[in-house]
Amino acid sequence: MQVMFVCVHNAGRSQMAEAFFNALAPAGMHAVSSGTQPTERVNPMVVAAMAEVGIDMAGHQPKLATPEMVAASARIITMGCGVQESCPLYLGMKIDEDWGLPDPAGQGLEAVRPIRDAVRERVVEFIARLQGETHG
Fold first, then answer.
1. How many CA atoms lie within 13 A of 90 on its CB side?
2. Rounded to the nearest 5°, which phi and psi values hold at 20?
3. 76-108 burial by CB neighbour count: b if 16+ within 10 A, else e?
4. Can you list the domains of the chain with their CATH numbers?
5. How far apart are alpha carbons 112 and 132 in whole angstroms?
6. CA 120 to CA 97: how far, in whole Å?
7. Which of 69, 78, 79, 84 is a good FRET partner for 31, with 20 to 30 A between their CA atoms?
8. Which pLDDT does position 83 carry in this prediction?
9. pTM of this prediction?
10. What is the torsional sign of CA 118, 40, 88, 129?
């Protein structure tokens, strides 16, 4: 089962969600992340915050959301959109959930840590729900 995490720039929240999901999900489940207007690189504060919890994101690159990614994904989660014109909610994607998390863009490490922790908490809870659906 593929899960897709989407935000506008694919530089922070969706990247963290993908990394946590792929580190914590059982075999047979994996995640991709993408953006509607991806930036050139993942936010360095996000990379640093994830390194603190043992997840190396140095090789991650923001990616553009494609129709193929959408079609291959059993669930699509948006991370809290701030730009209405480019938010996936307004691009016709079937969004399963919006997590409404704060954007780490322009924030220092102290501000990114609680966002990272909130992303991890949501991912852990989401994996538990998915496992319940597949085993229930």
1. 10
2. -65, -45
3. bbbbebeeeeebbeeeebebeebbebbbbbebe
4. 2-135 (3.40.50.2300)
5. 30
6. 16
7. 84
8. 45
9. 0.92
10. negative
